[in-house]
Amino acid sequence: MAAPYITGMTALCLFHPGRTHKPFWHSAGSPDRWLIAGQHYPDTSSFFGDQELVDLSELMDKWGLEAPICICASYERAVFDMLYNHIELSNQVVPNVQPSDIDDAVDLSRILGWVKEWEQSDLLKHGPAIRAWLETKRSW
């Protein structure tokens, strides 16, 4: 297991270096309420290793934010982590977010590629449901 990292909705609410904007306008809230892989969410290092992790320590220093963890899932890995947690492990719908909410900042096609690859390798049981979520179009 890799070191704990920020993931899920928390990661989508934080600015990442090199990205023009974050997927959600919400505040990430207090660090003691952040979603952390290995604590609140499953750690998907078995899929990614240390790939798709971003060091936010410089940004947090700039903001004057003291956080126990400065390593964060990329936006794409954070979305995969949400899908893996809710759909693959819990067989539930993903609450409070739809693809159209985040598709301007998250490359959903990259996630779809990962899902197809891991589905073919029999690493995902609910790949069709995850793909269906990723391919959902705007309803209005």
Structure explained in plain terms:
The protein is built from 7 helices and 2 strands; from the N terminus they run H-H-E-H-E-H-H-H-H. Helix content is 40%, strand content 4%. The chain has 140 residues and is mainly alpha-helical. The model has no long low-confidence stretch (mean pLDDT 91).
What's the structural blueprint in terms of helices and strands?
Blueprint: H1 8-12, H2 45-48, E1 53-55, H3 57-63, E2 71-73, H4 75-89, H5 99-102, H6 108-120, H7 127-134
Antiparallel strand pairs: 1-2
Helix pairs in contact: 4-7, 6-7
Index terms:
2 strands; single chain; 140 residues; mainly alpha; 4% strand; 7 helices; two-stranded antiparallel sheet
Brief characterization of the structure:
It is built from seven helices and two strands; from the N terminus they run ααβαβαααα. It has 140 residues and is mainly alpha-helical.
Specify the structural class. mainly alpha
Run of helices and strands? HHEHEHHHH
Mean pLDDT: 91
How much strand? under 5%
How much helix is in the residues? Answer: 40-55%
- Silhouette: globular
